[in-house]
Queue: 3 jobs
Job 1
Amino acid sequence: MLIFVEALLGGMLIGLSAAILWLGIGRIAGISGVVGELAAPSAAGNRHQPWRWAFLAGLLFGGLLIGVFAPERVLPLAGAGPERVLVAGVLVGVGTRLANGCTSGHGVCGLPRGSTRSVVATALYIGVAIGVVGVMRLLGAA
Amino acid sequence: MTPQTLLAFVAGLLFAGGLGLAQMTRPDVVIGFLDVADWDPRLALVMGGAVGVHLVPTWLGLRRGRALFGPLHLPEPSRVDWRLVLGSVLFGLGWGLAGYCPGPALVAAAAGSLQAVWLLAGMVLGMVGLAQLERLLSNQSASNRIPTLRERTAKYSSMPLGPSMSVKNRQMPSRGPEMP
């Protein structure tokens, strides 16, 4: 039961984080956009970077604290070698940049706005990911 | 540190805390949500909680038309296009393959997960590679288009002018005392 309460509270913290960015500095808490604009700025992208570095620093510092005080909350996926994870990473990187958003930008921020693009994107990536996990289960890899 | 960067840092910290509390930093929990045969509802609770909390602030910001420190930055309104569809499909493939989306990958990597570092390496590689490819393609399409008038006349403007026309050789009337 506690794990479900934690999941809901964790989600609410994420919503609070998105609300602070939005009402505070007018930015969308889209993590693929933050990383993408820092790693490979798009021509159309906004060149104002300091908030992106600060948001990224907060995420990483938070991760560091979790690693020190609650390392049991971070567990790698069993049976997934570096090759598979690297390929997955490339797909996540290319896909989120093409779609201009990931679970945070399209999900947490786009859905409350009622954005058609975000609804379509969220339905697609969740649907495809469910399909991938189903196929891997059939193949005995999951 | 400006109020903007301070708020962004706090937001990042809270985001990481939320992911950790909800155990989204564990790809097996994410895969559990995606596995219809053995469903783990936690990701649905996370998404529901986040969207629920962000609903009213989203509306407030849009109604006010600006943020506390600066304007609102909304993505350009655009339609559902092939980039969105293809991108979401590719992202779904990657997400299902390893159970990491960008946020949890960053937080788990900072917490010391080597697996998440591999995922981030692939992710940044994909992002930079895509940007390079798009730059290449846009340069190519730029050289295929009909040149503008300015571009077609550019070679004439670099041609030397006759001595009488050249600014360098033109005798400027001096206003010194030697003038008759």
Job 2
Amino acid sequence: MVARDIMLTSFPTVTPDTPLGEVYQAMQSCDLPALPMVDEHGGLVGIVSEDDLLRAALPVYADTFSDLGFLPRSYRFHGYGQDRLSATQAREVLSKQHLVAADPEERVAELAHLMLEHDLAVVPVVEGNRVVGVVTRRSLLAHIVAPSLRCEPRE
Amino acid sequence: MTLAGILCAAVFVAVFALIATERVHKTKAALAGAVLVILVGFVDQHTAFHGEPRGPGGVDWNTIFLLIGMMIIVNISRRTGMFQWLAIRAAKAARGSPFGILALLAVITAVVSACLDNVTTVLIVAPVAILICETLEIDPVPYLISVILASNIGGASTLVGHPPNIMIASATGFDFLDFLRVDAPIAALALAVFLLGCWLLLRRSLRVEAQARARIMEFEEARAITDQRLLRRCLLTIGLTLIGFFLHGMLGLEPATIALAGAALLLLLHPEGPQEVLAEIEWPTIFFFIGLFVMVSGLVETGVIAVLGHGMLNLAQGSIAAMALGILWLSGVACGIMDHIPYAAAMIPLIQNVSGSVPAGHQEVLWWALSLGANLGANMTIIAAATNVVVAGVAERSGYPIPFRRFLKYGVPVTLANLVLSTLYLWLRFLH
């Protein structure tokens, strides 16, 4: 079993200048936790994930606090108001781990390894410099954990 | 100077140039330089690694172990959220007053930097300062600069505050109380003068809405504490370690032994395994020190230090005052542009060398001049010390870059004022 056998081939993509508001809508419409970001030629730029959106909602220095529980209930991070966040372009929140991609012939074991190693929600599958599919954790798990329940990949 | 001396000095200068121009990471450059100095034979392995007891040269294990011990204590303590608690508590104690917050954060930063590692202190205080300023809707940059300046001033006040003091203590045998006796009063004065300056210059421009001040009072600082049990254990360890520092001279123990004892105690009390804590030790800094110590051993063994010492004695023409104040100002200016750690590493054997030619009882002032100059000079530019660079990094990532020139406007007057104060202080106390 290889990536080609379990990947989704129908999925939305985003571009570097897609606003985060639209990124979220696209994620919601296809129920994917992350989407490939592609350039004008369909080449992979990276993956924008829910993690990236969450991180963008916090100030950069948030990771230096061991606990943010001291913030008042009413607290809203300044400069990160909702309007501004939804208008932010996707390229600004992209983290570098997203340069990871798989070949269509990639072994399923390596896909699982990639997901854990790089903490990826989906692995993009690239063939001839174009993104041809995405493998989700769910489709991989279906193959590993419950092969008898497996549905055919969505087209 | 011998050919070996010239070549060894050339290696030292080349490593320095690589570091200053950021061509090569400072740790890589220092380690490569150290190995080169041994391989070429400027210093034999035994002297490079062990040196002479209380003499120049060799890796100073007191410095290495003190740094490692303190890093372990701080790495565990910072997980408890106690420093965030302290900073937020201060903001609330100031009732959201912008100048009150600036002053209290400066005092806290200075005190914590005096007892613990500066870089860790500012890494924790700087983000809280940004958060508080964002809440108050004011520019965080003056606050961040104030945190840097206070951290360097605070670090100057104790044996464990800044690495040059650790190295000086190891070279001279001065104990923790000696540093409190000589460095702490001038550091306290320097901080007071700095805050007075801020009050005179900034109090008008620091205005916030009552509504913003009220938001500060809504912070629930108690919830910043992640682990009450661990917090109590950390406070116990830090308390015992500080008591140990106060007593180390009397007990005949090196401060490094006290720090390692504190680290061992806290590792035992910490429920988690040591791997994670030990992995967080700043190994690049530790190896930077090791590399420097070996390179400086080369300078000592090839006679470079002796030649420089001779030159210094000639220049001062036997005047202790000229020598002490010369060291103070040279150190202040040099450490305003470059890292004070390699500077102090090279100056220490130099002062050990000239001490032999200085009348007994007059050597002490030379060491205090080095200590004050090297530590207070770190405030001059944004690149002068690791503390400054770390805060600049946090500020930049958070969207509030500290431009080089903007820092100079605060750093240069503060450094000059501190050096003038130090000159008067050394004069009245030792040279008069």
Job 3
Amino acid sequence: MGCGVTAQRARVEEDRMRRRMDAFWRPGLYDVLCKLKGKELGGWRVESLLAAGGQGVVMRVRRQALVGVMKMPLVGYDRPVSFGSRQVRRLRQGLEREARMLALHSGTLLPGLIELATGENPLLEGRSARLQGSERFLVMEAVEGLALDAACVSCSPDGHRMARWAGELLGFVHRLRSQQHFYTDFKPNNIIVGPDGGLSLVDAGGIHVLGQDNMVEVTPGFGQVPEVLEAGVLEALSLMALGRAFYAALSGRMLYEGVAIDASALSNADDAWRGWVLGLSCGELKTVEEARAALPM
Amino acid sequence: MPYCPYDRTPLQPGFVFCPQCGRSVSQAQPAAAPPSVAMFEGSVLWEHAHYPSAEDALVRGILRLKARPGAPVHVGGGHLVMVLDVSGSMNTSDKYPLMRQALRLMLENLHESLCLTVVIFSSRSEILCEALPGVQARRMADRLIERMDRSPLLFGSTHISPGLELAHGAMTRFARRHPGALQRLYALTDGQLHDAHVACTLTQRFMALGVEFNSYGFGRDFALHSMREIMGACMGGAVKHLRHLADIRETFVWLVQTAASVVAPQASLGLSLHPEALLGDVFCHRPVLTRWTPSEYPGMRYPVGSLEANRAYEWAFEIRLPEDTVPGAFEVGRMAVDFELQGCANHQSWALEVPLVDADEPGPVDEYVTRVFASLEELRDQSPEANLAALDARIDIALLEGRDASYIENMRSVAEHLRDGGHLDELDDEMTRGAYATCCTCASVIQGNLPDELRDALNSGRP
């Protein structure tokens, strides 16, 4: 879920978000989420909605001069009967875990953690007393920029720049691996290209901790949930998702189950770069070392 | 022998309207005693055999209701209004003659307690008869059919709104004379309507009258979406597909039979819930798919129309339980049916007792309940996935209910297309109409429920 956006683009993002929610969630849910605008959540005032999907609503928030990006649980607020307290608690635990990951991996491509606030969720009004007053609001540094696919369209990066981005992302995977952590949810929306050309990753929920987590976060079209949770398998999955994120960003196509990789979809990329993306996307390059060695520089 | 208080016409026992002047004579009769026993047999089906306690689990259930054998029938009379398409598309060797036969059967078998209004429409409209009592209908059957045959309206273009205007007028007048009486409107069309947008402006007026409004699509080409829009949120609201033209005869006779077998006129379904429970949508599954949202019906009272003796009703509901529950039978609320019969208020309710156990997960699934909810999901989720799941569920339910084979085959074809990644827009209209209109009661089922003499009459083509 991409949350990199400038204040000026907030309205555009909201329009896009409404269209996405109407198409993939339910018409009406976006309108309910809009009630959050202007509200105080955990001491932060909501300025605009940025994105929603998966498990969270992402908003641009402000506390005095400090601007941040807030993530809070996303459930079917428009149909209160559709979610139970178990689901809400699971999402809250997910945010707590994400906050831990952000703190643990500060100084990497992930945004810095500002705070994990607790407070009242106005969208849970009327629900059981146990659910109220204990909402989690994860506040991170605001990330400016464009999602990888949008950046590829707007600035048509050359092979050199793409290779630099790939190198940064492989460095991130390598650093996580040293702690038995694996980022398995690479996709264009999670990779933000800043105005200075630097990269950020915006969803720490995609980190799997080997030996602790029994779930793996993957997005259809970028990876499949593995049958076994082993370091080698998770590393290969992480790299495949990364390759497919580049493939999607360059071709506009997603490799859902049953969809074959089409080399001609990357006809705009040079041969070496195309070969690297295809090798990564179809799982031929299974370790960071292999991927680095094959990276055309 | 009792007499009509207005014109002194002798009245046969059981007459509710004077056969001469048509006015209600029910006040002249002693009010029947209120039923001393419960009128309905009801049972609640839960989706799971049991649910975890101490958790706000989502429970989904169905209240299935049927009148007890021998439940007293409403004798307050009723008004059937038929709005019949006689436009050019009916001018075929089978359609008009079959509709004509069906109307004759209806007139000749109209129950004494019922009145009939017949409106025909094409480019213009005409009332053949207004609130004609049962006895007179028999006498006048030939004359009315002849009048229809000679009508200058026959086989023009298809404009339904003037016909609905006439129907509304007749129903308004009837309601003035017989306040609270059952009124049912049936529109039969076989083609696309040229004035659907005009007809839609009448919806609110029919709703205000509180009448039940259903329609029949006769043959392959009928205005499914237009008719749905025209009926709007009126009670009933089903577009039933008469896919086998000859079934119109059984169907029209069945309309008379069912209208004369009402046991609970203008009933409402009510829910009362545990204060910490949360109600989601409530649906009618049988007879007609309907969705009632919590925001539209905050009082948890739903109009369900008049309930008949020989029909099974199913209402589905979803409730989020409170968190602090303990193992055992937990009464999360009650569901009730309220109606007025012979001037007496009737109320019958059923406890919604959820079986709770000390477990993490719910118990085994009742496949039927799951399928019903899957079929209802398309009322609130128009995504292709929900659409396909609903269609699959409807196929299973139709098989279980022994519905018409061609109807099931039609739904299967549409489901197959969706499964292959196709979209409804790509299918021809006839196929989607066939799959999404309500399936009529099978002619064989109707025949099985008719008195012998009527069955013989139907089979011989003439009573």
